Amino acid sequence: MSVPEHHFEESIEMYLKTIRELSEKYDPVPIAPLAERLGISNTSANEMMHRLQDRALITHTPYKGVSLTESGLQRAQQVIRRHRLWECFLVDKLKISWQQAHDFACRMEHVTDRQVTDALAAFLEHPETCPHGNWIPYNGKNTPKPQDIPLSDLAVGQRGTIARIHPESALVLDYLAARELKPGLTVEVIEIGPLNGPITILVGQQSHTLGREVATYIYLLVEEAKPKKEKK
Description:
Structural class: alpha+beta
CATH topology of the domain at 149-222: SH3 type barrels
CATH architecture of the domain at 149-222: Roll
Helix content: 40-55%
Order of helices and strands: HHHEEHHHEEHEEEHE
Distance between the termini: 82 Å
Number of helices: 8
Radius of gyration: 19 Å
Shape: globular
């Protein structure tokens, strides 16, 4: 039985969106982490890469990975734009919880046409970021280069403000919401376990110990270290 065309197009959009998200970390994007993010085998991912390349949506460098073409990037940005606008609407207007909005937006991002997307953006007064702190692509406007770094890269004593959670994951968002760790909070790294161990952070008077993998999803704008005063 053949896959319905609209389901295949949704699958293409999910691949392009995921490649775009992973491109912040990899250039080009290897097949293995792409397949892992999508919960599929490397073989299935490779088969789809051939189809995307036939449609001129990606370029594939053997033994290295894939990159979006200009048309692939534009389509990925459109999907991401729809997703993040729906998140804004769900959280700001319908008061859906911060962590639940992601899953609902995932369902609506594939069934929203350009006219509805533009109307939604206007209704929301053109927000620049989603509730999770991620930039909302704008038609004809380049996404700014991130100036933040993942929590996992910080050293003991460094402080920063949570800027965004990226890439978004229902599992990670549930975990962080339970600990009330959201964009806008200032955190300080107070301890890092040995051998790539967990990271303990201080938020106000509350400490949290996070696994190293979870810490890679939390991006911060890091404060510059203040110079120490010389002793007189």
